[in-house]
């Protein structure tokens, strides 16, 4: 069995800077997620409500897609803070449970955690809420594969 | 075309268009880019969900007032999406009174070479309920 890499101390990897870089470009840039906070194995991002991200015109509820993108980004960052450095990786799979609809106009907070890290695979989980962490809107679980590890 | 689906604002945000089938097309562009030269996984997941929901809505088109809510989705990413159109289509595995199970697939130049797939469970709300669940 592969030995997991123990959580490292905060090192060169700066999630504040990386979030700003990643959010300046492409799909993440178009979504506009912001850095909120981080710990040794978790990162929290915020996604502000925008009319163009609505999934249902009648209810004005945020679509589920932006929540997936937010959680993909928060959990990715969590793997790098846990590892203490950036390592190229690809998302293998991501499961999202939509616990309830986000309240229109509210900012969504995405909390991503890397709970196990091996040489090649990162196991992540997380949740999203719109104000109260005890009343989440979504729960996620997923895995990433390191793409440049032999 | 007249057929469903009327895309939600998020569908337009991703640049998705719908063709006969329904077949969903998402052109490559800066707003769906992840790492440089590749489609973002979140945008792919969004396309797969829109294909899944759109295909269920198409199956429900004769029922006025029917709508769906996502319960969960599992997305598998199999290949990087390159700088070209991405297509998606979905199969409704079961359409019950309350629950729909759907599978959606995304590909680029070759339909046999999937770049991502998703399994989605949806809650179905019908205007007038009846019959077997």
Report on the structure:
- The complex is a heterodimer of chains A (150) and B (133).
- By secondary structure, chain A is an alpha+beta fold.
- Chain A has three helices and eight strands.
- In chain A, strand 3 and strand 4 (61-62) form a beta hairpin.
- Chain A is globular.
- The model of chain A has no long low-confidence stretch (mean pLDDT 89).
- Chain B is α+β, with helices and mostly antiparallel strands.
- Chain B has a single domain, classed as Thiol Ester Dehydrase, Chain A, CATH 3.10.129.
- Chain B has a six-stranded antiparallel β-sheet with strand order 1-2-4-5-6-3, covered by helices on one side.
- Chain B is elongated and about 50 Å long.
- Chain B starts with 8 loop residues before the first helix and ends in an 8-residue tail after the last strand.
- The model of chain B has no long low-confidence stretch (mean pLDDT 90).
- The chains are: A alpha+beta (150), B alpha+beta (133).
- The interface between A and B is medium-sized, with 33 and 30 residues.
* Sheet with the most strands: spatial strand order of chain A: 1-2-6-7-8-5
Rg calculated over all Cα atoms of chain A: 15 Å
Strand percentage of chain A lies at: 35-45%
Largest sheet of chain B: 6 strands, antiparallel
Whole-number tally of structural domains of chain B: 1
Largest sheet of chain A: 6 strands, antiparallel
The name of the CATH architecture of chain B is Roll
User: What is the 3D form of chain A?
Assistant: globular
Largest interface: A-B, 33 and 30 residues
Mean pLDDT across the residues of chain A is 89
In spatial order, strands of the major sheet of chain B run 1-2-4-5-6-3
The coarse silhouette of chain B is elongated
Counting DSSP E segments of at least 2 residues, the number of strands of chain B comes to: 6
Helix content of chain A: 10-25%
Low-confidence stretches of chain A: none
Helix run count of chain B: 2
CATH class of chain B: Alpha Beta
Instruction: Tell me the strand percentage band of chain B.
Output: 35-45%
């Amino acid at each position: 069995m592969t030995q997991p890499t123990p959580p490292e101390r905060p090192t060169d990897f700066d999630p504040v800077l990386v979030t700003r870089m990643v959010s300046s470009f492409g799909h993440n840039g178009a979504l506009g997620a912001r850095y909120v906070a981080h710990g040794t194995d978790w990162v929290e991002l915020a996604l502000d409500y925008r009319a163009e991200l609505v999934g249902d015109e009648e209810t004005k509820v945020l679509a589920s897609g932006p929540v997936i993108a937010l959680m993909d980004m928060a959990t990715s960052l969590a793997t790098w803070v846990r590892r203490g450095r950036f390592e190229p990786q690809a998302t293998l799979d991501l499961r999202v449970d939509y616990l309830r609809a986000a309240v229109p106009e509210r900012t969504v907070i995405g909390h991503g955690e890397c709970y196990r890290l091996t040489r090649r695979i990162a196991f992540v989980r997380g949740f999203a809420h719109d104000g109260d962490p005890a009343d989440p809107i979504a729960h996620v679980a997923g895995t990433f594969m390191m793409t440049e590890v032999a | 075309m007249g057929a469903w689906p009327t895309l939600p604002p998020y569908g337009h945000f991703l640049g998705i268009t719908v063709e006969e089938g329904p077949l969903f097309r998402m052109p490559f562009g800066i707003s769906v880019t992840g790492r440089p030269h590749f489609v973002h996984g979140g945008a792919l997941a969004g396309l797969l969900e829109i294909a899944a929901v759109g295909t269920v809505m198409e199956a429900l088109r004769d029922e006025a007032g029917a709508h769906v809510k996502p319960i969960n989705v599992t997305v598998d990413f199999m290949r990087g999406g390159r700088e070209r159109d991405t297509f998606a289509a979905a199969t409704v595995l079961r359409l019950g009174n309350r629950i729909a199970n759907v599978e959606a697939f995304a590909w680029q130049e070759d339909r046999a070479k999937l770049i991502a797939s998703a399994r989605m469970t949806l809650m179905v709300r019908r205007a007038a309920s009846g019959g077997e669940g």
